[in-house]
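User: Hi! I'm working on a homework problem where we have to compare a predicted structure to a textbook description. Could you give me the structure for the chain below?
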Amino acid sequence: MSYTETTTATQTYTTVDIEKVVRRFTADMVMIASSTGAITEAEARDYAHDVEALAKAGFLRKVDITLLSCGIEVTAVTYVVNTSAGELTTSRPGGVLWRRVSAPHLRIVLFYTSSYDGDARESMRKHLKVEWVPTSEDTSHFTLKQVAGRDYASNGWGLQRTDFGL
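Assistant: Happy to help. Predicted C-alpha cells:
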C-alpha cells in the first residue's frame, strides 16, 4: 500500500498589506520626483494614490516608470504585482539613482488585470486623481540594460521591482 500526501499553501493579504507595500512604492516615486525634477512631489503622490486605489480594487497588474531626456530613455523601473508574494523578501525603497537630465519627461504607464473592463473603469474614475489615457508606448526598455531589482511585500501581496539603466 502506498501513501501520498498532498499539501497546498495559500497566501492571504488584506488592504493593509497593499497599503504597506504601496508606501514603499510612494517613497520611490517621491525620490524619483525629487532627483529628476520631472514631476513635483505632489504629482508623485497623486500617481501613488492611483496605484494604491487600483491595487486595492484588484485591477493593477504592473506599473512602468521611464525617465526620458529629449525623448530618449535614460532610466526605467517596472513594478509587477505578485498576489502570492509570501516568498518575497521586503527591501527598502531606493536603489538605482535617478539623475537630472535635460528636457526631463517622466512616463508612467499602468497595466491592468483583465477584470478592468469598461464598467470598472467608469466606477474607478471618481477614485483616481490622475486622468489616465490609453497608450501604445513601448515599455520593453530594449535600449536599457537591467541593472537591479527589489521586492516589496507584505504577507501575500507584493511588488517585484526591476530597474533599468544605460
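For your comparison, note the following. The mean pLDDT is 89. Strands lie at 60-69, 72-82, 104-112, 145-154, 157-165. Good luck with the assignment!
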